[in-house]
Design goal:
5-stranded parallel β-sheet; alpha/beta
């Protein structure tokens, strides 16, 4: 299997700053990079603000956008729109489509809610079917990064993707 995965351990959200890390959309890098947003949370961590029917990724905390929308905006400069995927549960698929359906390529429904590991594996298998040479970046949908850190986070993500692609390695 040739698929390479970059899992972002950096907590992730707010506005995308498209400065120096905007990639050439026609480059080979852009054609193989997939950004997958993990949005399957159940709403327990930020109770009482979040609930099962409206978990943290669908809340607006520091701007007029939801954390999911801020995350999508941040990864947008890294790849093509059709290569931005959101993984979520069946019960949250409609909310994902309502908030970001026009900004992403696909919504992947987890077969069952079993935390991040199975969601990552399931999505990798789906991407591999389409693109065995893909470079995949996984990011959480519900974290917060201050606006003043946005460009630095985007820069580090871009560097991680380049490293994974050049070294043919996991990051």
């Amino acid at each position: 299997m040739n698929i390479r995965v970059a899992i972002a351990t950096i907590l992730f959200t707010t506005i995308a700053v498209q400065a120096e890390v905007m990639i050439d959309r026609e480059s080979s890098h852009a054609r193989n990079v997939y950004c997958v947003v993990l949005a399957g949370g159940g709403g327990q961590r930020l109770w009482p603000l979040s609930r099962k029917t409206k978990p943290k990724q669908f809340l607006t905390l520091s701007s007029s956008k939801t954390l999911l929308e801020e995350t999508i905006d941040r990864v947008a400069p890294l790849t093509l729109q059709e290569r931005i995927w959101v993984v979520t549960t069946a019960s949250h698929a409609a909310l994902v489509n309502q908030h970001v359906g026009h900004k992403i390529g696909q919504v992947i429904i987890e077969p069952s809610s079993r935390n991040s590991g199975p969601a990552v594996l399931y999505t990798c298998m789906r991407i591999y079917e389409q693109d065995p040479d893909a470079v995949v970046l996984f990011v959480p949908a519900d974290a917060h990064i201050p606006l003043y850190e946005s460009s630095r986070v985007l820069h580090y993500l871009h560097e991680a993707l380049l490293f994974v692609e050049e070294q043919n390695a996991l990051c």
